[in-house]
Amino acid sequence: MAETPAMSTPLAVIILAAGKGTRMKSDLHKVLHPVAGRPMLLHLIDSLNRAGATRRVVVVGASGEQVEAAVAATGVEIAWQHEQLGTAHAALQAKQALADFDGIAIVCFGDTPLLATETVARLAARLEAADAPTVAVLGFRPADAKAYGRIIADADGTIAKMVEYKDATEAERAVDLCNSGVTAVRTRDLWRLLDAVGNDNAAGEYYLPDIVTLTIAEGGRAVCIETGEDEVAGINSRAELADVEAGWQAQRRARAMAEGATLIAPATVWFSHDTVIGRDVVVGPNVVFAPGVTIADGATIHAFSHVEGATVGEGAEIGPYARLRPGAVVGRKAKVGNFVEIKKATLGEGAKANHLSYIGDAEIGAGANIGAGTITCNYDGFFKYKTQIGAGAFIGSNSALVAPVSIGAGAIVGAGAVVTRDVEADALALVRPEQRSKPGWAARFRAQMTARKAGK
Ligand code: UD1
Ligand code: CA
After folding, report:
1. Which residues are catalytic?
2. 209-224 tens-digit pLDDT
């Protein structure tokens, strides 16, 4: 996403997240439930950062310490709302944290993670327009307006009234323009307006939208701009979480294809928030990209592969049914075939592990061939050890490489070996009993046994 140029007026955001999120039925705070493998709150913070927010305050209540821990590394400030008295009361709790701030504040909700950077910038910029509104509200027209608060506005976006569903008349409920909750207002107006909000309404709560009513009563202007439903759909339940995830995935798949990847069955491919995928990458059906994945140009990820924390080089082939775990680095044109698991291991250029292997804590040189069923025995129940395999080495099928161990470049390990000592470059290592053969034994055995079974 393109950087939005910083506005001249400083921007602060106040993210409300003190609600209990009861409908999630979870011990995890609602705003920490992940979308695309990352807590929804962090999606929102990222988007707000890109809009140029220099100050970020999250208002928390119940389970607030979970949120505090999750944002610890982001420089976001925390304000506590000990009693959930409504959205205006919640926003007011950020006053102390922003006491030294003079600029535009965007108030938004922690459970609306897909709010776009451009929309935030557009809303903030609306305050700077020639008609100088005091408040700008982000509206949307959902297919089902449910119990959202309604915005009664002119065609040009001038707001006449905002009303919560519980307090609305039938005529007001019939209005399809809804309040997303995202609100822009200068801090010098915000605190004064919030202080004046009362709770004489159907819910007995201090409503944030009442700052619009107060503005109009003062003779000021309140306006709204609109955005799409997908961007501001709130998450209140697991079902809504799944809906937002689905929307995010649909967008991400479309972007991957627009950027030159082929997704054979797009609806079955799952991305994470940080997946990086190149041009001419082909992704088969039912592939999952967990967090931390980079796929270089021209790579192919065949069906039913699960890829996490891995880097896949140009033209490499993965799967079908492969599992790449964190720290897997697959080189250019290397191949990882079916039922192969790779963890914290580097596969050099053109190296192959095509069938039924576990490669963990290993370094495999260019062009090496790892035979079917090869296992790196990297763990003794206490510590992990490393396996090194040189360039061009050939590991015979069904070998156990007991780490720490090193196989030299160009060496061959005969099938079925349990390798416990290093193998020098270009050597042949055989670790198995010698084969014996007894001519005619099987035929004699069969004859004897057949006779015994027939009772002779
Ligand atoms: C709110 C809006 C409604 C809007 C809808 C959009 C109000 C009064 N209503 O309704 O106009 O259409 O969002 O989704 O603003 N919160 C606190 N402290 C509180 C109460 C709420 O921090 O005391 C937080 C919640 O954690 C949540 C957000 O504010 O993130 C919105 O609260 P919620 O109760 O979900 O409001 P809605 O009824 O959905
Ligand atoms: Ca809500």
Report:
1. 355
2. 999 999 999 999 999 9
Q: Would you list the DSSP string of 7-27?
A: PSS-EEEEEEE-S--GGG--S
Which of 48, 47, 45, 82 lies closest to 63, judged by CA?
Answer: 82
**Per-residue confidence (pLDDT) for residue 20, from 0 to 100:** 83
Domains in the chain with CATH codes: 11-232 (3.90.550.10), 258-429 (2.160.10.10)
Q: What is the pLDDT of residue 400?
A: 98
* Amino acid 454: pLDDT: 96
What is the residue type of 313? G
Residues with CB under 6 A from ligand 1: 16-19, 59, 81, 84-87, 89-90, 109-111, 148-149, 164, 178-181, 207-209, 234
Q: Whose CA is nearest to atom 13 of ligand 1?
A: 181
Residues with CB under 5 A from ligand 2 (ion): 234
The mean pLDDT of 191-196, rounded to a whole number, is 98
Residue nearest ligand 1's atom 8 by CA: 207
Give the Cα separation of 283 and 338 in Å (integer).
15
Is the pLDDT confidence value at 233 over 90?
Answer: no
Q: Whose CA is nearest to atom 7 of ligand 1?
A: 207
Backbone torsions φ then ψ of 328, nearest 5 degrees = -75, 130
Q: What is the reported pLDDT for 7? A: 63
